[in-house]
Amino acid sequence: MSEPITPDRKRSRSPGYPSFSLQEAIRRAAALYKHDKRNPVPVAIAAEHWGYSPSSSAVMLSVATLKKFGLLEEVGGGGSRLVKLTDLSLHILLGTEGSSEYRKALQDAALRPQVHAELWEQYGTELPSDANLKRTLVIEKSFNDAAASDLIREYRDTILFADMASSDNMSGNATEETQKEASTMLLESSHLPQMSASPIPQKPQGLKRYAFPLADSPDAELFLPSPLTAENFDLLKAMVQSFLEMSKPALIAKKSNQEPRAVD
């Protein structure tokens, strides 16, 4: 549970890391290339290409993540914030899949985030268990628990996608708790965090329950640690907003007597 900030205690802020894997970052880069090729594009237009409203907090998370992978850069100035695809991004998008040049570009992008480069230098293909790696991230690299868990999932996915290690080496020996957390935090199609679609039988320990009445339907429930830091509030807002936008077609019934389909 997060603790209130006091004058003698600074808020725990994790180092920067990608919000989703390289595979998803390339998918979003491809959406920009499809619509605007190599031209600079306002961030608001990029948001539309990704299926977001320009005011969505998820837009800036996407821009930041593509920049961390070296796939996007900011250009120009003035009143409009512009972004464009980098040369590395174009090498991947226009390269021949399976070629040595394509594989090299993927691996270059995979290690562009500083924390990725540090983990690769320290462990290579022999990553420790999730629990052991999480301990290292929290103690040695000042990550908080939630950020460490998110990074571990994203890093393993990215290294596998870039063909830098086998699935056996990247499995992490995840515990049942870790697997459950992963299934309820990620949209399979987008690698963006999601909330579980299945009912929760009881309030998890240390969390506060919030119920939201719905018309002709059971209440929607949300469990949150209390209090939240300002940083975690903004992150939660972005994740919930992303979940609702990305899963709207699956959650909304097509007919009045048809139940919404759960997102696996």
Keywords:
3-stranded antiparallel β-sheet, 47% helix, mainly alpha, disordered C terminus, 5 strands, single chain, Arc Repressor Mutant, subunit A, disordered N terminus, 264 residues, two-stranded antiparallel ribbon
Structural class based on helices, strands and sheet pairing: mainly alpha
Oligomer: single chain
Through-space gap between termini? 28 Å
Strand count: 5
* Rg of Cα set: 20 Å
CATH fold group of one domain: Arc Repressor Mutant, subunit A
- Summed over residues and divided by their number, the pLDDT gives a mean of 79
Kindly provide the name of the CATH class of one domain.
Mainly Alpha
* H and E order: HEHHEEHHHHHHEEH
What fraction, in percent, of the residue positions are helical? Answer: 40-55%
Overall CATH architecture of one domain: Orthogonal Bundle
Put simply, the count of helices is 10
The major beta sheet can be summarized as: 3 strands, antiparallel
Which residue ranges are poorly predicted, with pLDDT under 50 across at least 5 consecutive positions?
A: 1-11, 174-201, 256-264
- With strands numbered from the N-terminus, the spatial order across the biggest sheet is 1-3-2
Proportion of β residues?
Answer: 5-15%
